[in-house]
Design goal:
Layout: H1 6-24, H2 26-59, H3 72-78, H4 84-96, H5 98-110, H6 116-126, H7 131-142, H8 146-173, H9 182-189, H10 196-229, H11 233-243, H12 245-253, H13 259-269, H14 271-281, H15 289-293, H16 295-312, H17 316-321, H18 334-364
Helix pairs in contact: 1-10, 2-4, 2-5, 2-10, 2-18, 3-4, 4-5, 5-6, 5-14, 6-8, 7-8, 8-13, 8-16, 10-11, 10-14, 11-12, 12-13, 13-16
Length: about 375
Amino acid sequence: MKKYGNRELCPGAAALGILLLLILQPSASTKGVLAGLESCAFQVIPALFPFFVVTGLILESPLAEWLGLAFYPVTRLGLGIRQRRASTVLLLCWLGGFAVAASAISRLYQQGGLCRRQAMLLLVCGVGSGPAFVVNTVGLLMLGSAPLGVCLLGAMLTANVCTALIFRFLFAVLPEKREPAASVLHSTGETNQPAGLVGSIQNAVHSMLTVCGFVVFFRFLCETAAQALSLGAPGFFALCAGLEVTSGCAAGAALPGCAAMACCAALSVQSLSVFLQVRALLCRELPIWPLAAARPLHLGFSLLFFRLFVRWLPGAAEAISTLAPRVICRTHTAPDAALVLFAFCCLVLFRLERGSRQLRRRKQA
């Protein structure tokens, strides 16, 4: 009889546990799935889908060389990456969040613009929740204070940079492994795919389906597990923060006395759902262990910087002391989606104008 180790048995045991949750908690399962679908329809898709398309168009255009020049000191001096497109990728990572970060870093790595270590550093520095979610959803809607959202965002980004700086020195000490020929393999595989707007939309649809699948599944898992375990407020926060970042922030915002710090911790940990989404969107040659290994260090930095920024930003400290015990969360981010759609339309018009100019030149020749 063949013997199985814990590594082979754990996925099967987890699947049986999820099946039991479906059977024993049908109403909670339905509620969790519906909550995930609602989140995808009103928050995730409007905010992320245009951003996925815009990211693909930008990285294929000359804009990638100069759009992120303001962040070039971070990538060149801090991370040691000379490629100017890396600064644009970092800008897209910080604007779009973890899903856009994984997609953009993979694309630049496959284009040969990054080596393996540089891509891992950019992963540590770039992956996190976007400003639309941190400032609007967590800060304004969950905590009731936009200044708190700004402090959270500043703490997350500063912690990203500090953690990436430390990992740069750690990577310098570790022996360098042989570089896999990712750019060659992927460049030959991508020649059959359409380029430009068509290819960007196709890639965006695939990425969007991946993200929505994880969102729905982990919302269902949070809801059913919470009903089955009957946890108190601290335990419910720990469960949600470990499984899904949005549910973790919502549970943290309901904690009396430490709501803002709990949301900061949930945003720093990022949750299992985020790790799996990044793994699904990241190319196979790039490992995810640096992102997971950086979480404890990032958590310490983010809590430290958040406490500092709260003292410096006017109105943030008062907002912490006057948080309501009950928080009603809404997840519509229409202004952010409209801004990204505007940028998307500008890029489409830019490509159409350039195509018409090339066509005129060919006719004149």
